Each structure stands twice: as structure tokens, then as C-alpha cells.
Amino acid sequence: MKYKILYFAFSLLFILPGSYFLIRFGLNPSVDFTGGSLIEFQVNASLAELRPVIEAQTPVASLQQSADSFVLKTKEITQEENQALQAKISSQFGEVKEKRFATIGPTLGKELIKKTLVGILLAAGFILSYVAYRFHDKKYGICAILAMLHDSLIMLGVFSFLGVYFKVEVDALFVTALLTILSFSVHDTIVVYDRIRESQKLFPKLSYYDLVNKAVTETLGRSLNNSLTIIFMLLALYLLGGDTTKWFVFALLIGTVSGTYSSTFTAAPLLVLWEDLKQHQHHTSKV
Amino acid sequence: MKQFRWRLWFILALTAAAIAVNLIPKYTLKTGLDLQGGTHLLLQADMDNIDPADRNTALESVKQVISRRVDLYGVSEPIIQTSQFQNTYRLIVELPGVKDVNQAISLIGQTAQLDFREDQTATAGATTLVFQPTGLTGKDLKKAAVSFGQSGNTTGQPVVSLEFTQEGSQKFAEITQRNVNKPVAIFLDNQLITNPIVNEPILSGQAVISGNFTTDSASQLAIQLNAGALPVPIKIIEQKNISATLGSDSVRKSVIAGSIGLGLVALFMILLYGVNGFLADIALVIYGLITLAIYKLIPVTLTLPGIAGFILTIGMAVDSNILIFERLKEEVRAGRPFSIALELAFGRAWDSIKDANVATIITSLVLINPLNFNWLNTSGLVRGFAITLFIGVIISLFTGIIVTRTLMRLFLSHSHTSKV
């Protein structure tokens, strides 16, 4: 815990630029949220072959195949862009016959975001109360939620950055990735806190600082091991899995690493900081 | 020890049941549009009677009514979006894995405009009755439901029971008072479905529509009445099967990658914790089997977010085991005999496992929104994720603790007897 300033600084290294990107550029919403264009066409090619050719021209929200045609949903494009795309496809695969070109509305409304946000806030509130109750001190609850916030900010910041420089879009999958990581982060943090609580019972004479130090060191091994299992799964999915889920898995990967880091290097130091501030307040008020 | 025996048999029985459910072809895993694809319907709205300025709103409300219908029908996570081109106003409805597509189509396609009319035949004794609208329509309905006829010639037959709103009940009372011993006609989309004679004024605000319903057609009408009538007539102009939105090629690769990932996790556990790791792996396999079986039984429609939830719960199940094993290492290092260390490890780890999992349970419950609060999520996507997460956590608590514990005790007793 000696280096807690360092740990906070390291976190800020990611959070500050991330937040800047978030505030300045926001996130890049996908067709799910904004609506776009739909093109239905026939061409002599396979789904796997078509996808990269189309992706070179325009981001693909979804490419589906039916008995006799392909249905492409993409960002809103003009008729010229549509023709250009078809020219590109036909240069590789032969004649393209367009069956339909239309504007499509969004599939997920803004209410999804709003309601999910309400849900998260509510859940965070419950978790805060539960943790505060189980650990007999509200600082545990609050710091756990702060760690959770830390992880969400990092995820959002990274994806805002990716959205600006790599045109990565945020879709419904990203929302689920965010929710998954929140659960994981809290889970991990609670395990560390539990160790602290137990050490408190066993060594009541130890200073809080040393207590947290001891607990964190003891749980470090376990925390890493557990995260490694999840990271193995996700790495396999990222490297070997299909293209369409790559960013989803990437979001989960970032969240998992961040969640593990935050349990040990953010949630715990925050507790020590809290205690320090309380002691400081206590002393100054005494004077 | 007897308790231990009982537990072992229970686990074996449960595993066998899970395997059975997984093998029976009747129970298939329902997957969403993103993984499996489904039926793609293209509907065209007839906007002739609508002012051009209002057409977008009309299309939006068609979308909402159809969303409600599909939701009430029980199809989870459809994709419904508006589609416009110049003067055509269309709706795309994609339904994952619908068993009876034709029923879904007739559910969606019908306008479902309900209205009540009374007999205004001028001449007494005329053979054809002339009906006039009364102003009581489907909008005055509070709820519609399927039930079975209680009396007369409709006993045992499917009927649709209606419950009116307060205003509707008032109107209905007046209508029935005016028409005692005369027929009151019920029209659906301008077609007469039934015209029962009113025996006495009905003040309770409840009515029954009977007449040649099958259970299916009755529930279809009930759904349509509950979801609301379509503001404009629509026509289904195209229907076809469509492949997965995530790309079937992509999905296949991901399934392989996922299995490799799981294999790595299993290997890792064995490397770290030796035999105990292997036992944890067995518990993990049992966990997978039971969870899959439950997904099939309920059934849960699995989408990619749902799978993410499932992966997360695997991570947490493994975590519970790791917590126990690390604790075990410590206790053994502290010099305690193995069997006592085992019990202590389980006891101490249980506290943190419980707290951590409760947090996840809270999150998933809030996201599932079981009481259907309007200010919380009612959409399929997040809910589907939360449901898989919730089920996974509960089962992982069971397998992570009870199954691993029983397996380890089993191993312990065996190693003891072999030592003797």
C-alpha cells in the first residue's frame, strides 16, 4: 500500500485520456442504435467471401443470407455509395442484381440505454448497501462501487478512442460486455474485501494499513489465477473466433484485466485512503 | 458419512438427468437471431388513409403494436425495424426459431380492429340485420384472455373473455341495457364474429366472445386485442428464412474457439492444483451439463450476450473453486491435517463466495426486472443476458461448493482407505 499513489496515477493514466475522448467524441453508435440502410442483392459468392469485400467499403452491421439473396444492413449510405459498393462487389464476383435498397430504422431505442442505466444505478445502490451491511462499514460499499466505476470508465474511454481512430462501433453487444464486466469487477473486489475483513478479525492489533497490505498480498495469487482462466477463454475466442464478435470479446478482455487490476490496486488502496482521511479529520478536529 | 453418501447419489442422479435432457432431441437449445437466424418477414403498411405528415408516426406505432404482439406471443428477441424507401412504408420483422411460422404471420398480419354494434334494423322481422356502431371498441378493453366456456352450448370450448376499462364498462352497461332481448354484434376487422342475444344488462364490464375458436385462434385473438389494433392495415409481402446476423461462418469459428478456451482452462486448473484441479474440472463439466439442460428446459433463448453471461458464470464457478483451493493450501501449510483443512477451507471460502455471488445475483435480478417496472428494462436483449447470468450463478454456487466438496471428500475417503 506504500505505492498507492502510484496505483492511482496508473489508473488515471487510462481514465483521464479516456474520459477526454468520451466527453469530446462520445461513442460511435452502430446501426442498432441509429438505423441505416438495407441492401438486398443477388450475387454469385459465398457469405465468407463477400464480407471482407463489403467491409472494405462500408462497416457491416449485419450480412445475412437467405435462399436466393444476401441482405446487408449498414450505415446510412447514399444511392451513389450504394452503386459504388455494388461496382466493387461485381468487379470481384461478377454481376450484382439489386432487389431492394431502403432506409431502416433503429432496432434498439434510446430507452434501452436509459433503462439499462437506471438498472445499473439501482443495482449499484443495492450492492453498496449489501456490502456496507455485510462488512459493517459503508466505506466498503462505496469503494467497491468506485472500483466498478473505474472499470466502466476505462472501458468506455477505450472504446471512445477506438471509435475515433478505428471506427469501432458501439452496439448492443458492447452494452452486455459492460454489464458483464461490472458484475465481474464487483465479484473480484468483494473477494479481496472479504480477506481484509477476515484479517481484521484475526489480527485486531494490526494497523489498517498493514492489514490491507497483508490481505492484498495474500489474495493476489488467487486473483491473478482466476482472471487468467477467464483471459484464456477470451483470448481463444478473440484469436480463433469469428470476426463479428472480435470487438465484443475485446471489450470483455479489457474489462477483465481492468476488473482484476481494480480489485487489488484501486479498491483496496481506496479503503486505506478513506481511513487515512478519516484519521486526519479526527486529528484535526481534536486540535 | 450417511449424509455424504446421500449427497453423492443426488449429484450422480442430477448429472444423469442433465445428460439425458441434453441428449433427448425434443429439447433443443433455442438460439437467437444472432446465432441461428430465423424467419424474415417484410410487411407493407397501407398509408392511403393517413396524412403524409403523420405517416412516420403511424409506422412507428405499427412497429410498437407488432413488437407487443410478438412479445406476448413469447418470441424472445426478435428484430423489428422500420424500412422506408420513397413512398413505401415497410416493417421488417425477423423472428428467431419460430415453430409455427404461419401462426406468427397471422398473428402479425391481422389488423385486429374490434368493435361492438347494435341492431338498428328499421323494420321488424326483417331477415338481414342492420348493425350500427356503438362507439365501444377494442380501445375500451382493459384485458383479453383465453378461457373455456362455462355454460350453454359453449361449455368446454375455447372462448375469449373480455374485461373493459371503467369507461368501457359504463358504455357496455348502457348498450346491454338498451338491447335486452336483442343481439349485440361483435365485429373484428369489419367482419361479424358473433352476435349473441343480450339476456340482461351486463354491469360487470365483462363479456365473452365465443364462436368457433380453436385454442390457437382464441389465444391469437387475445394477444392481438391485448397488444392493440394496428392503426393501418398491413400486408405481408415477403417471407423467407434468413441466416444468423452474426454470420453462420463466424459462429462456427467461435464455437470451436470457445471449446479450445474451455480446454485451456481445464488444463490450467490441473497444472495449478493437481488432482484437486481435476476434480474442479469435473465439477465444471457437471455445471455445464446442468446449466445447458436448464436452458433447454425453460427454454431460454440463447444469444451471444447470453453466452457471455454463461462464460462469466464459468469464470465465477472456477473462481469459487480457486478460492477454496488457495484456502486449502494455506491451512495445510499452517500444519493442519488434511481432512480438517478441507472443512476449514470450505467454511472460510464460503463467506466470500456468498457475498461475491450475491452482488451478481442482485445485478442480474435488477436487469431481469421480474416485476415489469416500466422504468426498468423490458427489452429482450439485456433481459436475456441477465436471465442466463442469474441461472448460471445459482447453479455455479451449487456445483462449485457442493459438487466439488463431495468429490473431494470422496477422494479423501478413498485415499484414506487405500493408505490403510
Please characterize this protein's 3D structure.
The complex is a heterodimer of chains A (287) and B (420). By secondary structure, chain A is of the alpha+beta class. Chain A folds into 2 domains: 4-29 and 109-286, Up-down Bundle (Multidrug efflux transporter AcrB transmembrane fold); 36-104, Alpha-Beta Plaits (2-Layer Sandwich). Chain A contains 9 helices and 4 strands, in the order H-H-E-H-E-E-H-E-H-H-H-H-H. Chain A has helices spanning 4-25, 31-34, 47-57, 79-93, 110-134, 138-166, 172-202, 208-240, 246-286; strands spanning 36-42, 60-65, 70-74, 97-104. A 4-stranded antiparallel sheet of chain A has the order 2-3-1-4. In chain A, helix 6 (138-166) runs antiparallel to helix 7, helix 7 (172-202) packs antiparallel against helix 8 and helix 7 (172-202) packs across helix 9 (246-286). The longest helix of chain A is centred in the C-terminal third of the chain and has 41 residues, at 246-286. Chain A is elongated and about 80 Å long. The mean pLDDT of chain A is 81. With 420 residues, chain B is an alpha+beta fold. Chain B folds into 3 domains: 2-33 and 246-419, Multidrug efflux transporter AcrB transmembrane fold (Up-down Bundle), CATH 1.20.1640; 37-111 and 235-242, Alpha-Beta Plaits (2-Layer Sandwich); 114-212, Gyrase A, domain 2 (2-Layer Sandwich), CATH 3.30.1360. Chain B is built from 10 helices and 11 strands. Chain B has helices spanning 2-23, 33-36, 55-73, 101-109, 166-178, 215-227, 248-297, 304-333, 338-368, 380-419, and strands at 38-45, 79-85, 88-96, 114-119, 131-137, 141-148, 158-164, 184-188, 191-194, 206-209, 234-242. In chain B, the strands form 3 sheets. A 4-stranded antiparallel sheet of chain B has the order 2-3-1-11, with helices on one face. Chain B has a 4-stranded antiparallel sheet with strand order 5-4-8-9, with helices on one face. In chain B, strands 6-7-10 form a 3-stranded antiparallel sheet. In chain B, strand 2 (79-85) and strand 3 form a beta hairpin. The longest helix of chain B has 50 residues, at 248-297. The two termini of chain B are 18 Å apart. Mean pLDDT of chain B is 78; it is low at 416-420. The interface between A and B is large, with 77 and 79 residues.
